[in-house]
């Protein structure tokens, strides 16, 4: 008889809280501090309030999950007799995966069965990978089958992003100060993609917001390739610009005929680095990066 197992993750996947609850997915929380106040699993702030504070000039800082925190979260599941498969936030953007991997190694030495996967994804890219993994599990796939699918497909989760406020990208070291100043003056919107190392890389630019949205749709068409028919759902996240997210969803539907989609906020931890009005699109593709 196959042993029961649980899929875990962290809050960097940016799926709605209702999804985690409905599918009984335990979540670890990275925290952030803004204006002297720390927000975490037990003390939360609404997305709307978070972005309002950012628009007013607040500069939040973020913290990763520690090995001890990861260990305690894992033990809650392992002590119930279940194996654990954890899908972690990209190691290219945070030390959280390394913390989880260290905790898992210690627990394996104690006789538990646990594996941690570096998703090399972020936000709803990580969310889409988790969504597909949970779907497989609920269809009857065992631990090894889900793990293997995730490992084989994590680099096929495409992330295409248009940023609005270049200051936050500059603060995070993504672009230079001079680029930020000139770009803001010319209304240049950087286009960003996730590379195979799980890092967000500026790969192009658009002149104006509308052209930025069109660029995301075009990149999706370039990257889907042979995986196009597998895209029964696409996902969009936004940094407090829901109207643009809905417009982007309509554009994708009209271009590619994919009916199902999910829209949600970019959570505060990632939003601390992207700033307000960032918009991102996620789907399955043959390749992650386009030359745009």
Automatic annotation (TrEMBL):
Keyword vocabulary terms for this entry? Lipid-binding
The record's listing under PROSITE patterns reads: DEGV
Write down the PANTHER family for this protein, in alphabetical order.
DEGV DOMAIN-CONTAINING PROTEIN DR_1986-RELATED, DEGV DOMAIN-CONTAINING PROTEIN YITS
Q: What does this protein do?
A: May bind long-chain fatty acids, such as palmitate, and may play a role in lipid transport or fatty acid metabolism.
Alphabetized NCBIfam families for the sequence: DegV
Name of this chain's protein:
DegV family protein
Give the originating organism. Amedibacillus dolichus
């Amino acid at each position: 008889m196959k042993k029961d197992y649980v899929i875990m993750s962290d809050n960097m996947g940016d799926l709605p809280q209702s999804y985690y609850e409905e599918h009984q997915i335990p979540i670890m929380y990275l925290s952030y501090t803004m204006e002297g106040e720390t927000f975490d699993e037990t003390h939360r702030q609404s997305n709307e309030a978070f972005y309002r504070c950012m628009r007013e000039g607040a500069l939040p800082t973020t913290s990763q999950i520690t090995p001890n925190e990861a260990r305690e979260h894992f033990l809650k599941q392992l002590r119930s007799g279940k194996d654990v498969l954890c899908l972690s936030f990209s190691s290219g953007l945070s030390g959280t995966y390394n913390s989880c991997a260290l905790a898992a190694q210690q627990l394996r030495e104690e006789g538990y069965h646990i594996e941690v996967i570096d998703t090399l994804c972020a936000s709803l890219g990580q969310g889409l990978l988790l969504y597909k993994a949970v779907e497989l599990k609920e269809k009857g796939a065992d631990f090894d089958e889900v793990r293997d699918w995730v490992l084989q497909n994590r680099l096929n989760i495409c992330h295409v992003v248009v940023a609005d406020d270049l200051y936050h990208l500059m603060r995070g070291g993504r672009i230079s100060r001079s680029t930020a100043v000139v770009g803001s003056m010319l209304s240049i919107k950087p286009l960003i993609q996730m590379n195979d190392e799980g890092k967000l890389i500026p790969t192009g630019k658009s002149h104006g917001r509308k052209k930025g949205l069109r660029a995301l749709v075009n990149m999706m068409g370039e990257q889907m390739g042979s995986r196009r028919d597998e895209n029964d759902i696409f996902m969009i996240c936004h940094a407090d610009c829901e109207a643009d997210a809905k417009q982007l969803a309509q554009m994708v539907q009209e271009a590619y005929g994919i009916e199902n989609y999910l829209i949600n906020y970019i959570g505060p931890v990632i939003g601390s680095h992207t700033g307000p009005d960032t918009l991102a699109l996620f789907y399955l593709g043959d390749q992650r990066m386009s030359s745009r």
